[in-house]
Amino acid sequence: MVCGLITIPLMPALALTVNGTMVHVSVDVRTSLLDLLREHLGLTGTKKGCNQGACGACTILLDGKRVNSCLTLAVMHAGARVTTIEGLAEGDALHPLQAAFIAHDAFQCGYCTPGQIVSGVACIQEGHAGSIDEIRSWMSGNVCRCGAYVGIVAAVAEVAENSRS
């Protein structure tokens, strides 16, 4: 039996916009968008939780829509716009939902917080934050092991209400 080398092709320079900055990177064609962000671009705010799409810790905005970045290959998104937790604030000014998470003490260990915030931003933008029950339903893909759901929902509800005013 002869063992041969297996070569994994690299994608020629993949171009996409991450948090407002155009990036060009060559990655293995099997690289998830999550691993591209964390391992190749150093954006470690997006967390790797279950790596199976069940916990929401890796939630990002992809062309304005929330996506579990562990479930999609980076090479599928040439030309896409990606927003991570690092891209929500404007300079030193926190995004309103980031500030609301602090005000409502919407985290304990903080591991799920980036995914919760990005998902909450999308929930509001999608128009799915009209009631507490609607927020809970549309945020159900984001798991918090500490049980900070009361603060999370309150923060999303406050920002949604303020955006309607």
Word description of this protein:
The protein is an alpha+beta fold and 165 residues long. It folds into two domains: 14-87, Ubiquitin-like (UB roll) (Roll); 96-164, [2Fe-2S]-binding domain (DNA polymerase, domain 1, Orthogonal Bundle), CATH 1.10.150.120. The chain has five helices and five strands; from the N terminus they run E-E-H-E-E-E-H-H-H-H. The protein has helices at residues 33-40, 96-103, 113-125, 132-138, 149-164; strands at 14-18, 21-25, 59-62, 65-68, 81-83. A five-stranded mixed beta sheet has the order 2-1-5-3-4, covered by helices on one side. A hairpin with a 2-residue loop joins strand 3 and strand 4 (65-68). It starts with 13 loop residues before the first strand and ends with a helix. The model has no long low-confidence stretch (mean pLDDT 94).
CA radius of gyration: 17 Å
For the sheet with most strands, the description reads:
5 strands, mixed
Find the CATH superfamily of the largest domain.
Beta-grasp domain
- Taken together, the total number of domains comes to 2
The tally of strands reads: 5
- Residue-averaged pLDDT, rounded? 94
Number of helices, counting only DSSP H or I runs of 4 residues or more = 5
Shape descriptor reads elongated
CATH fold-level topology of the largest domain: Ubiquitin-like (UB roll)
CATH architecture of the largest domain: Roll
CATH class of the largest domain: Alpha Beta
Gap between N and C termini: 71 Å
Residues in β-strands, percent: 5-15%
Helix content: 25-40%
Going across the biggest sheet, name each strand in turn. 2-1-5-3-4
Secondary-structure element order, as H and E?
A: EEHEEEHHHH
Query: Which regions are unreliable across 5 or more consecutive residues at pLDDT < 50?
Result: none
Q: Classify the secondary structure makeup into a structural class.
A: alpha+beta
